[in-house]
Fold:
Amino acid sequence: EFAINPLLCLDTIYYYLKYGIVKQESFIDLTKFYFNHSNTNINTAGKYPQDVLFLLGVYTLTICKKPNKILKLINAINHTYQGSNDFQYGYHFLLKIVTTEATLALNKTDEGMALYDKISQDYNNNKKDYTPYMRAAFYLLRLRVTFISDPEQDIFDQIQLLLHLAEQYGYKLIKLNCLIFVLENQASLKIN
Structure:
């Protein structure tokens, strides 16, 4: 048995991308996990399957657009699943990106910018080690941070770079999140 049901998560993501329907079953499962994580027995012998499982849960929860829930889940995961804090692992890099996005969504700008600065520094020091997906996730975060920190800056090139990368590798969720960001902020965006 898994700490988080991957089939419910995959089903939710599939229905969201294919039909625009947000199925609630996985959100219920994820909510149960973060309220009862101390009762969960996690096999830490196989680190990488757990990494994928927890990232799947976190990314599934991003569909509901409730940053408080996302941060609660991440805190429960960090409390339950002790892994390396080293950014060289993709798991921690992606988890920090989602944490930063959720923090910024809660209008905790100073805290979110501090998290972003650490991620950005790490990214710049190790960018050759990151996969295209990790780069795309970072570019999406950088786009959001640029909009928050300097709304007057022209971000057209950043949007084009992100959409090209997402299209090239078939990252539909990142492309969708980028387009949602553009549509939600189209009145405020400076795009020449």
Notes: The chain has a mean pLDDT of 85. The first helix runs from residue 6 to 19. The chain is about 70% helix and 0% strand.
